[in-house]
Specification:
The chain has 15 helices and six strands. By secondary structure, it is mostly helical.
Length: about 400
């Protein structure tokens, strides 16, 4: 009786709302400000030997511990188990290899917490999206203000080096566009993101942006499995052509960096093959070439270096399960832009080191799970079978238009 009374009182004081109503509400200011910092994570925090984004994630997680999950959202289930296993194996790999760097372990704890707390709504996803949008605009403006300072003719700045900045822009830009429903703000942030991506002059980011556009523009009735197959085939064809033209035209000056990559790749292979199952433990981020340290240039190999095939499998399984969950949202409203936000890191990871275990991927995974678990808005009042639409152009499609698209 007491439980039923408590539930009834909760329905009166905190009614369950779905996506349209939830996305229109204002967000928490602390979450907004902290996500501005997390987006611009390449700024060093003075005196701590880490970045402003890493420091900002600490109060974000601590605030989340004191909050309740959003009412009406579905339980996370299998994705939560995979995320927990991902973090647990990361730590266990460190114990096995006697390699437990505190900053790297701390980052992984924050990374997993961000995914889980965003998924259940303890982190305010609406505020997070607003912070990301402002952060991307700030990062692009600052990048152009310091244009060419570290890489001639390319944008760097608070979002990272050109390839890193491109990955942040394309991943978090899609997360923002997948959550924001106000057209004016979408236009401003979308334009800033596009200008920033062009400024990075990153071939990998250009390819990721093309694949994201392809995914979003495919008709909603095309099943997800078919969309994935088409994207994979086109990606293979495009990369084959791009490989033969990678040092031609406007990219003619990239020969030196490509030669360095070809020298680094065999050394990365040697590291991962020397301990293939469990890896070498957290913090195995660099290789030695002619008495110089270079970061890994492949996030797929970096996963295997830090946690072996086990970490590699857990990470890709997490990405896959979250993508499948997003394809069958509880609200009945698909979000093709958030689906694309899960796709682009898989492409950026081919030629960039720390992608999978970085905050943009955590944010994309958390936002995707939050969307997938959202209840249908006004379920008690809606006619049976009716699917409601959110006014965000090209990003959202009702599952009822093509139930076979949900896998």
């Amino acid at each position: 009786m007491r439980g039923a009374t408590s539930a009834a009182w909760a329905d009166l004081t905190e009614p369950v709302v779905g996506l349209p109503a939830r996305l229109s509400r204002s967000g928490r200011i602390p979450d907004f400000l902290l996500f501005v910092c997390i987006t611009n994570n390449d700024f060093e925090f003075p005196g701590l030997g880490t970045t402003i984004g890493e420091v900002a994630a600490i109060p974000l997680v601590l605030l989340s511990l004191a909050r309740r999950a959003e009412r009406g959202w579905s339980r996370i289930g299998a994705p939560a188990l995979l995320v927990t296993a991902l973090g647990g194996w990361f730590l266990l790999s460190g114990v096995i290899n006697h390699q437990i760097p505190p900053f790297r372990i701390g980052h992984m704890v924050l990374y997993c917490a961000v995914i889980l707390f965003m998924a259940c709504g303890r982190i305010d996803v609406v505020a997070a999206a607003s912070g990301i949008g402002v952060g991307l605009v700030i990062g692009t403006v600052y990048g152009y203000a310091t244009f060419g300072s570290d890489y001639p003719g390319r944008m760097t700045g608070s979002l990272g080096d050109p390839n890193g900045a491109g990955y942040v822009l394309i991943t978090l830009g899609l997360v923002y566009l997948g959550l924001e429903t106000r057209r004016g703000r979408r236009l401003v942030v979308g334009l800033a993101t596009a200008v920033g991506i062009v400024g990075t002059f990153s071939r990998t980011t250009f390819l990721a942006a093309g694949m994201a556009a392809l995914w979003i523009l495919m008709p909603p009735r095309v099943p997800v499995a078919v969309k994935g197959s088409i994207t994979a085939v086109l990606f293979t064809q495009v990369t084959t052509v791009a490989e033969s033209m990678k040092n031609q035209g406007v990219f003619a000056d990239r020969q030196g960096s490509d030669n360095l990559r070809e020298l680094i790749y065999p050394l990365e292979q040697q590291i991962v093959s020397s301990n293939p199952l469990t890896g070498h433990g957290p913090g195995t981020l660099t290789i030695q070439l002619e008495q110089q340290s270079f970061f890994f240039h492949s996030s797929y190999l970096l996963l295997r270096a830090e946690g072996g095939w086990i970490l590699f499998t857990l990470m890709l399984a997490t990405m896959l399960v979250v993508a499948l969950r997003l394809a069958r949202p509880a609200s009945g409203i698909r979000n093709k832009v958030l689906e694309a936000a899960l796709l682009v890191p898989l492409i950026c990871a081919l030629n960039l080191g720390n992608v999978f275990l970085d905050f943009p991927v955590a944010v994309a995974l958390g936002a995707a799970l939050w969307w997938a678990g959202a209840p249908r808005d006004g379920q008690a009042d809606d006619p049976p079978g009716r699917t409601r639409q959110i006014p965000a152009p090209t990003s959202l499609v009702p599952v009822s238009q093509g139930r076979r698209a949900a896998v």
